From TrEMBL:
The name this protein goes by in its record: DUF6774 domain-containing protein
Segments forming domain DUF6774: 23-50
InterPro entries: DUF6774 (IPR046665)
Top-rank taxon: Bacteria
One Pfam family of this chain: DUF6774
Amino acid sequence: MCPEELTLFATSLAIAIAKDRTTDEIDLTAVILSQIASSLATISIQRQQCEGKKGFDVEEGTDSGNTSSIIITS
């Protein structure tokens, strides 16, 4: 599937899901789908790390103000 088709598919799916739903229902659905997307990304990155594939490197450190920060590099 090309990028344009994928975008069209995602937009069409969003329109179909939102049809005949209240704003509150759409908001709840969006939050749930966002959580699913975040969880899938976490699983994918963790699998890549466990398999030794190139993925994202996550480094945790502190700056001069002792504020904890996370740096993600590819």
